[in-house]
Amino acid sequence: MANHADSGHPKQSDSLDRRSMMRLMGSASGIGLAANMNQITALGESRLNDQLRASGKRVILLWLAGGASQLETWDPKPGRPTGGPFAQIQTTVPGIGISELMPKMSTHLEDTAIIRSLNTKIADHGTAYELMDTGRVKEAGVDFPHLGAILARELGNIESKVPDYVSMYTSTEGRRKGSAGFLGGRYNPMFLTDAMMPENIQRLESITDTDHRERAELRDTLSKLFARHHSHPSFEGHNSAYGRVRGLMASDYLFDIEREPESIRAQYGPTQFGQQCLVARRLVEAGVPFVKVARAWWDSHGQNFETHQELCADLDHCMSTLLDDLKERGLLENTLVISLGEFGRTPSINGSLGRDHFASAWSCTLSGCGIQGGSVYGKTDENGNTVVEGEMSAGDLYSTIFAALGIDHTKEYMLGSRPIPIADFDSTPCYSILT
Amino acid sequence: MPSPHPDHRYRSPSLAASVIIIAVINLLSAGAAWCDSDAARQIIQLAERIDQEIESQNADRLPRQTLSDAGYLRRVTLDLAGRIPTIAEIKQYEDLDLPDKRLQVTTSLIQSPDFAYHQRNELDTFLLRPLNHDREWRSYLLEATKENRPWDSIFREIMTPEETQPEDLRPTAFLKHRLGDLDKLANDSSVIWFGVNIGCAKCHDHPLVDDWKQEHYYGISSFFKRTYRSKKGLIGERFDGKVKFDTTSGESKDADFMFLTGTKVTEPELSLDAEVLKQYQEQIKKAEQDDAAETPPQPLFRPRQQLVDLALSDQQQRFFAKNIVNRTWARFFGRGIVHPLDQIHSGNPASHPTLLAILTDDFINSGYNVQRLIHAITLSVAYSQALPMTESDSPSHGENKLENQSDRGVRYFQHAEPRPLSPHQLSLSLLIATGNPEKTAEQISNPDWEQDRGKLEERSEGLAQKLEIPGENFQVPVSEALWFSNSSEMQNQYLGGGKDHLVGYLNEIEDPSAIISQAMFATLGREATSEEQVVLSKYFEQRNEQRVDTIKNIVWALVCSPEFRFNH
User: B200 contacts in A (CB within 8 Å)?
Assistant: First the structure.
């Protein structure tokens, strides 16, 4: 749609003469005309970390909404009363076994670290989701930013032409948008719910591309005239949002997987999760720092094993394909892939052959950027009821994620006079799984 | 700020006639008699006290500049009516040759139906909107704002709905949407009604604020601990239930019913025998689960009601009053006298303590009259200050000096701070700006305006719900810019070319410079500067084949400007 020909409309040479506009504005340059979001970091931090940004780190979060079972994925307990019907298979990394429901990942662990010792304590969906999406326990009166917003801010380029936080969540169950909290609307996610294409990112057919561009230029010119007498960071922030529109529109092709060769699309497969993983790869390849792809709904209070047979097959296939694809393109060393949910599932099997919410001893994985592949961190007891080695909190996981990306986990945001560290107080990165 | 080029002011004979007729009708409704009343004189005096206090803190004699008539009218109409003024209203105001015309216009706006609707929207945003959009609750708020219900009454109705109007479930929404989370209920209540964020004192005494101890946090929580909601939707209190907490030294404590000032309420011994108590507890449990269940009895000692009584008692009411005075001030200045607004404590003193005391006293003595406070604020000279001057306008050129002056200027209310429009302000203003200005002016001056304003509210709701509610450090999200740039609603509805729309209306005007002037007035409430005229005329000339689209694009560029997006 955005690329159709502009028949019957003036070419650029006939259009509004930009040079004459600039002349009209006289010496307007240098009076703070450039929209610069750096100036509205009213949180007290004026300089963003340019060095990091230049290094181009990216994150894809595979969000297992509802809570996947660690026993049917990364921490099987074969032969134990809690083990369930599935076997453990050896992986290509000596000494590491995972559930037989993850056969493809069993040959893809060389870039992945498995964490088996999360103890995050909170086991209701809403609160646990907040905990795992912000890395800290909710506190009344403070609106903490979600991981995507923190990383959009830490890894994104303020003038980026591509989105810096894309979140895909097409299921209705457990859908949550994600919030930039006190970091402000600049870091809100571009949220895809119903369609694969973000809302309002494509030009309407009823306006030509020339008109669309020229009216944006006209808006810009008028705003600059206004700024000559009224300069303020709020106005600059407004201009900056409009300044990103055309760039974002030009990135619409990133969401269009039809542009991928048939062979690549076939690799990712026909499931929606697969297609969204492919979109995620396209996005990080183009420089989008954070993409969240949600796969629902793992909340298997009944029929846990059938549920996991189906969902693990999708996860196993898509995650291994994604890792392969990123690696082949040379993107994996700068892209961190996280698989995580709000909690795991009880080792005990209930009367409906289900597993319930469980946050005391569960698993997640980190792959790629900054991660020591082929490693396992932490250990649960023989039935999987408790962590016996390397207990990790949500804050510790966040610290580890930040450290893997080269972000100082002790860095603080200032909320008024109150310092808020980006990873919760007293959290420590797990250095043994970092390169 | 006065326009630098008054010679470019547009004079259109075709429009002028209708504008004047409307202007006269509108002026008659301004309540001229009221302006001579005692109440009016008191408000004027209060406005003068505000200015004395603001001036007394301006030791640096920072340069100040007062808004033009059109600039003041845009600001005050957005602030009191929740929308931009129409072309007719601007012309009327500019042409009005009276020494007390600000009194006239503020009175007229406050007495208009717009004010009650706007107050309702503001209250909703403050009290509930971020959590829930609740139509019933909004209708309750509108009822309250229409009759300028005193703030203490609103507080009572919302916090103890079962005491004030047990049959009416609408005001229960505040409690209802927070009941699932005691921490949120307690802290939100403390922030909203008293300006004190105690969240940080949950796990330990507040690390940065000496005033707030763990005891305060759990003290406030205690007042809410027994609150429940029946399946029918009625709010009630249980007969028992205490908040327990662990101190940092590991000691386990029962929390007292303690207000933020440290004043405690002692619970009388419960004189029920165990059997009856058990029966009541079961009745409550049943009522929570079954909407056919009988309404359980209320205990004699009801902690939430105790909190409300305590907060409004002669000794404690200043806490409560000071908070809303400070918040109301911040609404009109973009910054509180105590700032941040949820940090009213001894470590964060007011920038103008005497002013805050004067306004708080007046507020209490006037019977918690929010309207009177708002009226006085909007009549003050301080309120009518322009934005800070930029380097090119300022007499002093040193960059650092300018920056410091600007910061100080905001802190001491020497000049205005741009404030983002709320979702409703923006959505309503977009409807007004892109509508046919003559039709809108006629509608507003019509006796049916109250009804039509209600309809306008309904129409504005869709967009308002899409927009982000501005908080501290608000940044316009790119999703908003994308909506304005690419949504079919914007292109086809707001920028429609029919007779009910500005684009269609402008298309009937022949002279391009008249079109430009009218477009500027309709959207930005002012005349085009000579530079804008040149830029826009040129745009027009180059595109004379596509007249309607050209007009559309101009209107789009104006409503998407920062000047439109903010109140300044």
Answer: 139, 141, 418
For residue A232, give the nearest of B187, B418, B539 by CB distance.
B418
Closest in B1, B183, B556 to A215, CB measured = B556
Q: CA A63 to CA A315: how far, in whole Å?
A: 10
Burial-class residue A251 by CB neighbours within 10 Å (0-12, 13-18, 19+). Answer: buried
Tens digit of each residue's pLDDT, chain A (435 residues): 333 333 333 333 333 344 443 333 333 332 322 223 333 333 333 334 444 444 689 999 999 999 999 999 999 999 999 999 999 999 999 999 999 999 999 999 999 999 999 999 999 998 999 999 999 998 877 889 999 999 999 998 877 888 999 999 988 888 888 889 999 888 999 999 888 899 999 999 999 999 999 999 999 999 999 998 888 888 999 999 999 999 999 999 999 999 999 999 999 999 999 999 999 999 999 999 999 999 999 999 999 999 999 999 999 999 999 999 999 999 999 999 999 999 999 999 999 999 999 999 999 999 999 999 999 999 999 999 999 999 999 999 999 999 999 999 999 998 877 889 999 999 999 999 999
Cβ within 8 Å, pair B561-A186: no
Any chain A CB within 8 A of the CB of B477? yes
**Nearest-CA distance from A186 to chain B in Å?**
5
Question: Running DSSP on this structure, what letter comes out for residue A282?
Answer: H
Distance CA A405, CA A156 (A): 13
Nearest to A110 by CA among A357, A324, A289: A324
Tell me the count of A-B CB pairs closer than 8 A: 189
Q: What is the CA radius of gyration of chain A?
A: 24
Judged by CB atoms closer than 8 Å, whether chains meet at B342 and A16 is answered as no
Would you call B476 and A200 a contact, using CB atoms and an 8 Å cutoff? Answer: no
Helix (H/G/I), strand (E/B), else coil: B501:
strand
**Test mutation, B389, B391, B479, chain A, max A CBs within 10 A:** B479
What average pLDDT does range B71-84 have in this prediction? 98
A31 Cβ neighbours under 8 A, 6+ residues apart: A227, A228, A231, B390, B391, B392
What does the domain layout of chain A look like in residue ranges?
58-202+261-433
Residue pair A198/A244 in contact (Cβ under 8 Å)? The answer is no
Say if residues A409 and A422 touch (Cβ distance below 8 Å). yes
d(CA A402, CA A117): 18
Min CA distance, B469 vs chain A (Å)?
10
Nearest to A21 among B199, B484, B535 (CB): B535
Interface of B with A in 106-145 (CB under 8 A): none
Instruction: Specify the CATH class of A58-202+261-433 in words.
Output: alpha beta
| β A335-340/A58-64 pair status | parallel
ipTM summary value: 0.90
Nearest-CA distance A305 → chain B (Å): 33
Contact across the interface for B473 and A142, Cβ inside 8 Å: no
Distance of residue B188 Cα from the nearest chain A Cα, in angstroms: 7
Nearest to B155, CA basis, from B312, B300, B374, B260: B312
CB-CB under 8 Å, B202 with A140: yes
Contact B473 A182 (CB under 8 A): yes
Residues in B closer than 8 angstroms to A417, CB to CB, are: 208
Strands B227-229 and A58-64, by their bridges, are unpaired
What is the total residue count of chain A? 435
Q: Give the Cα separation of A140 and B131 in Å (integer).
A: 13
**Contact state of B340 with A416 under an 8 Å Cβ cutoff:** yes
DSSP codes joined into one string, A163-224: -S-EEE---STT------GGG-GGG--EEESSSSS-TT-S--TTS-HHHHHHHHHHHHHHHH
